[in-house]
Fold this sequence. Notes:
InterPro entries: BolA (IPR002634), BolA-like_sf (IPR036065). The protein is an alpha+beta fold. It has one domain (about 5-110): BolA-like (GMP Synthetase, Chain A, domain 3, 2-Layer Sandwich). Helices cover about 40% and strands about 20% of the residues. Strands 1-2-3 form a three-stranded mixed β-sheet. Mean pLDDT is about 85; it is low at about 35-40.
Amino acid sequence: MTSNTPREDAIRTKVTDALNPSRLEIFNDSSKHTHHKAMAGSSSQETHFRLVITSEAFKAKMQPARHRLVYQLLKDEMAAEGGIHALQLKTMTPDEEARAKEREEGAAGAS
Length: 111
């Protein structure tokens, strides 16, 4: 059986295997970009993704290093014909995620 989302499947597998994330959210935003000139002639439905990744592997790494790590993991998917054209990343450690959640809850409670 062939997957309808082979690139998303590859993203999930590679990120999970390499980073063991406590949180991995993958959003396929490709349908929002089909009208872009760069997408003319492309039949791929998997070109634009947003990822939210929480992993201990990001500890002691600045955002650019975290992003380079993810780009390296997905280099084949980005280089492929009709591959990933755009990749938006939100990367954090579990501690950073917890602090962000506390800030959100504090702001919601102050309203």
